[in-house]
Amino acid sequence: MKREDITNKIVKYLIQKDIIHNFYNVNLDASLSNEYGVDSLGFVDIIIYCEEEFEFEFDYIELDLSNFENINSLVNLIEKRVGLEL
């Protein structure tokens, strides 16, 4: 799966959940908690979505908040789990 595809799926999900309001004006490095207001329940929703959408389960050690700081860090983690198509 291409990085762009992973990013687009996550951004579309965040738009669907009304966390992000404009697909074309997304800062991939903005803090999900500080900039976009994602709280602990929101992070649980994101984790569940990623596990279902990308068909894997996060390891306990991967559930560190630094892996969910922003969209880019989340995409990096998913790339490691599902592989990157070049």
TrEMBL record:
Pfam families xrefs: PP-binding (PF00550)
Domain of life per record: Bacteria
Ranges for the Carrier domain? 1-82
Entry-linked PROSITE patterns: CARRIER
Q: What is this protein called?
A: Acyl carrier protein
Q: Which organism is it from?
A: Methylomusa anaerophila
